[in-house]
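Hi F.,

I've been meaning to write this up properly since the lab meeting, where we talked about keeping a consistent format for the predictions we share between groups. The idea is simple: the sequence comes first, exactly as it goes in, then the structure tokens exactly as they come out, then a line or two of notes. No screenshots and no reformatting. I'm using this chain as the first example so we have something concrete to point to.
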Amino acid sequence: MKHVLTGILPVAPTPFTADGRVDEDGMRRVLDCMIDQGVDAICILANYSEQFVLSDEERALLTKLSVEHVAGRVPVIVTISHFATHIVVERAKYAQSLGASMVMMMPPYHGVGLVPAPLGIYEHFKAVSDAISIPIMIQDAPISGASLPVDMLVKMAKEIENVSYFKIEVPFAADKLAALIEAGGPEIVGPFDGEEAVTLLADLDAGATGTMTSAMFPEKIRPIVIDYRAGRLDAALAQWQRCLPLVNHENRQCGLRAAKTVMMEGGVIKSDYVRHPLKPMTDRTKQRLLSLARDLDVLALKWGK
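Output, unedited:
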């Protein structure tokens, strides 16, 4: 990338048809809708993209389709996480060859009981860096069960050439972000948070320069980051307070299903199908979600109508 990435980098959902096949046209519409929401970049194949229910062939298809369809309008970040180092290396090389601007990866894990020692984690990231020339974002999330202490993250930022962005979404993320920024200094190019921006104000206070949310309503969350970084703290707080009921409902009640349901309601995609063993939302949860989204007049609710 030619510039430092800040702002909002939402995760694109993977749309499926009602019978569970990858919806290629729906994926293109998702990407267009996200760009129309004013996003600063798009992340694909992440956990909120249901990456764990996709085959290798589907991942390759979606990577190629997404990078080609976005066509440079915004940077595309491709998630490449896998336990096997040789697989993440190949995924990284493939993403870069297609024109991806960045890759994101979690530390290697296979359930909470199978996590390499710190040296193995370090070597995992270094192998990817040695194979590509685009930035790497480290995703630090409880789902992996892998401990990534601040001193280890700083060591990787200083010693591994392409490690420069960090998505911190662990408990007490703000404290970890602040410690990471203080210890890493200029090597911490992009400190971001996640979790649908549920802790965004605290994380911005700690020095985060952006957020990686879902794709449900980034046009409402992006101004929080913009206003905060411009010193308009009252405006940032007021907008976050407006968004928080929907952010909280998504984060605590809906998970990855929320963006797909809102996009289906707004005609962006035809189905909000999630692959088994995931289950659809209850009607109760769905109706509250749509009510809160209508209150905020989110773009995805009307984009395809």
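Notes:
The two ends are 35 Å apart (CA to CA).
The chain has a mean pLDDT of 96.

If this format works for you, I'll send the rest the same way.

G.
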